[in-house]
Each structure stands twice: as C-alpha cells, then as structure tokens.
Amino acid sequence: MAPSFVSIDTTPDFDMTPTSSKSADSGKRTLLLAPPSIATQEDKLRTLFTTYDRSTTDLQMLDRVSAGFVSLPANTYDLVLVLTGTDGTRRSEALQLLKREVYAAVVPAMKGGAKLQTEDNFFGEAEDREAVLAGLVKKETGFEKMDVGNGAAVPLRLGRKKKAAPAPAPVVQPPPIISSDDNDLNDDELIDEDTLLSADDLKRPIVPPPECQPKAGKRRRACKDCTCGLAAQIEAEDRERREAADKSLNVMKLESDDLNELDFTVQGKTGSCGNCALGDAFRCDGCPFIGLPAFKPGQEVQILNDVAQL
Amino acid sequence: MSGSQSSGSPGSPGPPGPPGRSALVVYGSETGNAQDVAEEVGALAERLHFTTQISELNHVKPESLRSYTIVVFAVSTTGQGDLPANARTFWRSLLLKKLPPTFLSGVRFTWFGLGDSSYPKFNWAARKLYKRLLQLGADEIYPGGEADHQHSSGLEGTFIPWLAGFRKHLLDKYPLPPGQDPIPDDVQLPPKWVLRLRDQEAASEDVSPPDAMGAAVTGDFPDSYRLDNDHRPLHDSLTATLVQNKRVTPQTHWQDVRHLILTVSDPISYAPGDVLTITPKNTAEDVQSLIEMMGWQEQADQLVSLVPRDSTRSTNELPSPPIHSLDSYPRLTLRELLINYLDIRAIPRRSFFAAIAHYTTYEMHKERLLEFTNPEYLDEFWDYTTRPRRSILEILHEFDTVKIPWQHATSTFPIIRARQFSIASGGELKRTSVGGARFELLIAIVKYRTVIKKIREGVCTKYISNLRPGSTLKIQLQRGGLNSSVGQLVGPTMLIGPGTGVAPLRSMLWEKAAIVKSYQEKNPGVDPPIEPTILVYGGRNRAADFFFEDEWQQLSDLIKLKVLTAFSRDQKQKVYVQDVIRENSSLVFNLLHDKGGAVFVCGSSGRMPQAVRETLTEAFQYGNDAGTQPFSRREAEDYLVGMEKTGRYKQETW
Where is this region: N-terminal SAM-like domain (chain A)? Predict the structure, then answer.
C-alpha cells in the first residue's frame, strides 16, 4: 500500500498527429497504426521513419484511435499499416486493439483504392470480419477500400453516427443517463481510473484479514457462498428446530391446521423459564415456541395454516 | 443531557470555517450498506464531540474536504469495480487530469470499503478512491478497512473491529479537554430532523393527489392485486405504467416468477445490461399495525412535514434531511410517509436496536435491546435478525413496550431503498407503438422459510407481485455494467445466465436480432455479418422454468443462436450450467479462443459465477482439440484474466 505518488501529465502521451494536411494530395500518404508498447522503443520508431518518409507518414496509437481521441483527415491515406512487427511480435497486442471503433475512424480516412495491411501480413478471423463490416474488400495482402463510383462498399452503419439516413429503428443509441452520472466533464479530461490499480491490487488481501475461524464458544456461521456444507447443515438445523418446535406444540394439541386455542396460564403449558411469552429474543435454544410471535400469558393463540394469529 | 451539545457548539455561532473538531462522513452506497456504515461512523464521531456531517459523496465538493478535521469515506463497489451512482459525480471530479498533486493536501482521511469477494474486482471502488486521494496529496490518518459480504459474520465481522480501532485513534489523537467525556452510548443523540404537524387549515389548500383511477386494465386478477399509483417525487425517476404482470411459472411450481412489462411515455433509450430500479412501498395493513402498536392513531392522518429540530443551527451545520424532496409530496400525512418512505420491514441493523432502546422504560426489554448492540453479542444479534430474516415490524411486536415518538419516525426507521432489476428487453422490444419506451423485467418473487413460522417475503417483490396492470410506479434507469459494444454484439458471444439471470442476456439477444434485421433491410439478400452465440441456460425443470423457450426458437436462425440447457431436477443427477460448459469445452474453446468471443455471466452471485469461471479455465486448458500445444493451468488462468482486462469477460450478478 505504498503511496504511489504520481503527478499527472496532461500532455498527450504520443503526439504525432499530422502537423498539417498541406501535403495531403502530393505523393502517397501512409498512416501507421501502432500498439502502445511501441512508444517505449524509440529505436524501433526511428527505424520506421527510415522506411516511411516522415513528411508523408502519420503515426497514431491504436488505443487512442480506438478510444476516439484522434480525428483523422478524410480521404487522405493510400496505405494504412498496422504495426504488428514484421515478425508478428506485436501482433496480438495490435490486433486486440484493432476494433470496430478503429475501422470506423480509419476507413473514412482512406482514399479510394487505399490499402489496409499489417506488417506481418496476418489478419485473423475477427479482423477479417471487422474489415469487411467496415466496407473493405479482401485482397491477397490485406484489404482495399473500393474506389467510389465503381461498386460501392456497403459499410454497416450500426448507430454511432445517426446524422444521415432516417433509420427506421435506431438500433444503438448512447446509453441513457438518468443517474447522477452526467456531469459536464469530458472523458478526455479525466485520467483512466483503471490505471489506478495494478494486478497486485487484485491479489491484495482483505484488510483487516477475515477471521473465518469460529471463536471458541461461538456459534459457527456459514459464509454467504458456503461450499463446505455448513450452510446446508445450518439450514437443516433450522428445519429440525422448527419441526421439533412444531412437534412439541402438537403435543399440546396444537395442530397446525386446526383452530386450536391455548391458554398459557394453565399450569404445565408454559415453559419453565417463563420467558417463552416474551418472544424469540428471550426464548431459550430448544423452546417449542421458537419462531412464534410474542404473546401475553393468557392470550389465545390460534395457529392457522402454520401462521400464528394473535 | 448535559453532554449533548456536542455537535452544535452552541456558545460560538461564529463563521462556519474550519472548526476545531469536525468530521465529515461521506458515502457511496448502492444498497444502503455503505450508508449504514457512514451513519455508524458519524454517530461515533458525534459521541466524541466532533461536529459531524454525513452526506452522500455526490453532495460534496472535493475542495470542501480540507475544512474538516477528519474525513471518512465509506464506499461500496458495484458493477465492474465501479463506484456507486451516488458517488460518481464526485469521483469524476477527482479524476480530472489537470488536478495538481497538491490538490487535496491538508485533507486528513480514512476509508472503509464494502465489497463482495466473489467478484474479482473486490472492493475496487474503495481502493481506487484511496489511491487517487493519495495521488492528490491527501493524508491517510488511520488505515482503511474493508468488509466482505462473503464474510461469515457479514459486514459487521470486519467493520466492528475497524470502528473500535478508529475510535481509539480519535481519542488518542484528538483528546477531549479535561472534564469532557464522550457521550455514552446509552444517551440518545438527538435527531437532526423531526416531523411536525402542519397547520391543517393552511395545508388544506394543497392540491390533492390525482385520482388513483388510471387506465384500468380489465382481466382476471386475484383480489390481492391492487391498482396503485405512485406519487413520490423520487430523484431522477420516471413514471411508468405497468401493462403486464404475468406469472410465467406454473402454479404448481415452487417459485413464482413474473414477467413484467412497463411503459413510459418518453422515448428513453437504454442498452443491454442496464438496470431499472423500483422503490417498493409498505402495505396499508403493515402500516396500520405499526400505527396501532405505537399508539399513533391520533396523528396518523394529519398532515406532517420534516423540519430541522434545532432551527437555530446554521444551514451549513445541518445535515441533509433523511428523505429528499419530501416537501413536494402531495398532502403528506404520517400514514403516507410510513407507506411510501420508511422501511418498516427491513432487517434492522444494530443501530436500530440502540435507537429503540431509548424508547422503552421496561428494563427487561431495554437491557436485551442494548445487548444486541454490543459487539460481544454479535452472534446473538445475527441469530435473532439476519439469520431468520426478522423484520423491524416483528421486532417491535416482540418488544411491545417500545413506543417511538412519531416525531422521530424518520430518524428511527431506515428509508425504503430502491431495488435494481436487470432489464430483459432489447431491440424492437424497447419501444412502444406510440414512441414511448418499453421495459420488460423477469422477477422471481422472493418467499422462503426460516426458523420463524411465518413465511418470509421480499419487500419489493411482494409489492410488485400484488400490482394490478394499470398501476403506476416510479422507476429509475441506471447504466449497467455489461457495456456490450456493438462489436461484441455482432461478434461471437457466450451468454451464461441461469434462472432470472437470463434477463439481461435476453436483452442482448433481442439487440442482436435488431442489428441483423436492420442490416437485412438495408442489404437484402446479403448474409448478415453476425457471429454465433451460445446461450447457456439453467433451471430446475424444463417444464417449469425454461423462460422464453419459444423466443429462442424464433431467434435462433436470425442470430445463429445455440442454446445449451442444464435442468438440475429433470434427471437423477443434478446438472448445472458449469456441467454443460464442461461437456462442450471444445465448442467453448473455439468460440472464445479461436474466434475471440466474449463471455457474459449473469445471475445470482456466489457459487455460480465462481463455478463458471473455473469451468471456463478448464475449457481453455483442455478444450483445444486442434492439436496445437495445450494451455497449462497457469496459461489458461492468464488467458481468462486477459479476457477480463480487455472487456471480453463480464459478470453481472446479484
């Protein structure tokens, strides 16, 4: 529980957004989509920009694109390359982040005929599906955005942007906010609360540690999710107790489905402790009246359908 | 009560600046437990002569924390390790990136978390809050504590020792001046808010509540079903009309499960996993019985209002009233207040016994009541209250010498809280034909036996079970924890929800169907891009509790749905959802691992989600029949944790 003293850096963690779109129509433009781990490897980045000309290449972090923090220029790129590593070292990290939200942001930024590729030329089943859903066409190496005009791709619009086309049934709308959640704070301005806790916190023991062991002389209780059978045992005890109590009452001619009367002032029909009439709070463990309401000595008790009527 | 000027500091009505000895106890509470904890901490501070404020977190500003000698946070965890709704505004304001690390320096705090260790993100809300408070420069002056619902003594098991330690710490660090003693436990702390009779003449001008007769729905209902209208000005609530209250299990089945349909005139939208809250009411019979027991017949039908007991206190010092916006309740009588707001059927906490012990002069009763408040008698307290599920009303029947002054009703009884129900409707079921919103719920009516002879009934489900269609209810819509993205909805999914746990999953299935249908409309003839879904359902008997069986048939072609069932009592050997998952481990492996699918587990908390988790881990270990290298146990566990981290394993249990 060492206090982790973290100052908050408000600058974007990796800002290489297109400095301007001046060269947007001069030469081929490339968009590199990087998994966040690459940011820690400066040399890797430098090598990248020897391959891809910095002036015509933009780099974006997949997680930021996926979270909607990045707005990409429309109809700009000829190639979108996902940095999975040529040997696929970052494949799982990158592909995990290559979600629908990414396609939604990236596909409009691709020119007609532009290509989407991964460094190691791998697309899994999930990526294939998402790419097709986003209106791309599968090619030998990756996907291509169809040129508008000859055969339009049919992007599956699943809500999100509901401006055009009066949809007959709005399928997905932003979840309602009726709870007190709606302050005006933009998610952008907030730290990610999930970063506050680490995997170690998952394993952190409960403080103070639970004292599951029964104390001497105390009755043992079952945990809420008891698996050891104690809960069943206690339940059985309760049932037994109830049945025993029922039985003792019956000895006193109190059939549960009869309308019987019982005069507690009569000798021998009240518990020897004299506390029975006071209710469960005062009754002893084996009291035959357990579970019945308190009563006044002399009061008539009727038991009707198992329920005492006082 | 010489020592009772504790909180008022009557001699010096100076400005509200940082007083020498003040405490703020703030809570984020979903079901009321954290609030109870806060109130108990608050009472303790008050007895140690701290000027004490108790408030929900959303009602305080982070900037104000510094002005108290000590701040105590009591926070429960909901959803996927989230803070409760009534703490989230505060929480978000603490998450601002621009806050400097000195933002909260000078704040002295401790904290108490309430969680359930059957959830992997046990007590995360409190832990996150704790970390963030430290990041912002606040000082933890006393180590926080954590309670676990799964603990064998419940929350009290850890709360009581923690509280005792905290009390000692306060007395050590903030000693009382010579001659002043803590207010003893047997001296009542005067309530901050009390009921007063209103001037009946003037009040008669109030508008009377609208006629209870709404659109009466005809139909065959038992006499116990009543048409009821809800006039409560509940926070952020919608008025919903009940259009269906149908029992879906056979009369002969042990359990009564209802399929409810509610409509709202506004076009409210919602998503799978979202939750509807319903705030129950007491029955007129229960309230009448309480009124008679307490001897309140004379005041019962007079108009009342809730006012500060000590009107000379500045509003800054005045804690917020126990019930909000009560002023706008039309013609509030004591009886209406009891029916609509006070939880007389609650299982009481220890503090209730402490409170009512002041209201009897019969030594035998008083002594016993105080015993129940003593931590040493925790077992007896538990055996008397929680174990048999004994209600306040029954306890008052037993301790019949207790006469609560009606003026103190709101400070003695807990306030009725809202209960959450997962919404079972999705897709086209979400809208009415006239553009309003439509909600379906699947609710098991709670009835069971304990050692008490009278059958136990759930307060809220009893209220619901007797509502006749046409009745109105005040409902609140809350965002749920499932947060299924559209990608997940069309992707491969494994839905696990036995019993009424199937409700939020049904919402997802209808949502999937709506996506497919709308795609088909736009792209006729094209195969809809939907991946397979496996629904794993469990119940007792196929004949009795296979909810929505017909719908699954109807949906199966549209959304590639495969339903696996486990009916525990249909054969000699009991079969549960986890057994069905185990039988289909290669199918599971293919869907979740190869296809990258997502898992949603819904239903009762405790054993089921744990068993499912274990079986899924095994499926990752042994389900790979593609011949590639199998996962080790460790790798399988890690894979599951990875799914959780990326939002591909979600659990919503209750």
Answer: 24-154
Task: Please state, in angstroms and rounded to a whole number, the distance separating the CA atoms of residues A153 and A270.
Answer: 87
Domains detected in chain B: 22-173 (3.40.50.360), 242-280+418-478 (2.40.30.10), 282-411 (1.20.990.10), 486-653 (3.40.50.80)
Axis-axis angle for helices B350-357, B33-47 (nearest 10): 50
Query: In the structure encoding, which two tokens stand for residue A140, read together?
Result: 């030998």
| Residue in chain A lying closest to B526 (CA) | A154
Query: Is B236 within 8 Å of A178 when comparing Cβ atoms?
Result: yes
Phi then psi for residue B366, to 5 deg, are -60, -45
Between the two ends of chain A, the Cα-to-Cα distance in Å is 57
Looking up tokens 């799982």 gives A92
CA atoms within 13 A on the CB side of B592: 31
B27 in Cβ contact with B85 (< 8 Å)? no
Q: First-to-last CA distance in chain B?
A: 45
The answer to whether residues B78 and B149 touch, using CB atoms and an 8 Å cutoff, is no
Confidence of residue A214 (pLDDT cuts 50, 70, 90): very low
Q: How far apart are CA A192 and CA B132, in angstroms?
A: 11
Point out the residue among B121, B146, B453 whose CB comes nearest to the CB of A291: B453
Give the CA-trace dihedral at B150, B152, B157, B159, to 10 degrees.
Answer: 10
| β-bridge pairing A136-139 and A142-145 | antiparallel
* Partner-chain contact A6 B121, CB within 8 Å: no
Residue in the block written with tokens 């108990």:
B40
**Would an 8 Å CB–CB cutoff place B30 in contact with chain A?**
no
Please choose, from the candidates B581, B640, B595, B641, the residue with its C-alpha nearest in 3D space to the C-alpha of residue B493: B595
Q: Which of A175, A185, A281 sits opposite B368 (nearest CB)?
A: A281
Integer Cα distance of B416 and B322 in angstroms: 11
Instruction: Please give the Cα distance from A35 to B384 (Å, whole number).
Output: 58
- Give the global pTM: 0.69
pLDDT along chain B (654 residues), means of 10: 38 43 93 87 95 90 93 91 90 92 95 84 91 95 88 78 94 92 88 88 52 50 82 92 95 93 94 94 96 96 92 70 88 96 93 93 93 81 89 95 96 92 96 95 91 88 94 92 81 95 96 93 88 94 94 91 93 90 92 93 86 92 78 91 89 84
In whole angstroms, what is the distance from residue A289 CA to residue A8 CA?
A: 65
Q: Which residue in this structure is represented by tokens 């603490």?
A: B94
Interface pTM (ipTM) of the complex? Answer: 0.71
Instruction: Assign residue B336 a region (left: φ > 0; alpha: ψ between -120 and 50; beta: otherwise).
Output: alpha
- C-alpha span between B515 and B292 (Å, rounded): 57
- Detail the DSSP E strand segments found in B16-130: 22-28, 51-56, 70-76, 108-115
What radius of gyration, in Å, describes the C-alpha atoms of chain A? Answer: 36
Residue with tokens 């509807």: B276
Instruction: For chain B, say whether A54 makes contact (Cβ under 8 Å).
Output: no
Mind telling me how many Å the CA of B278 is from chain A's nearest CA?
Answer: 14
| Exposure letters B320-336 (e unless 16+ CB within 10 A, then b) | eebbeebeebeebbbbb
| Whole-number Å distance between alpha carbons of A129 and A131 | 5
Beta carbons of B114 and B107 less than 8 angstroms apart: no
Domains annotated for chain A, with CATH where assigned, are: 30-145 (3.40.50.11000)
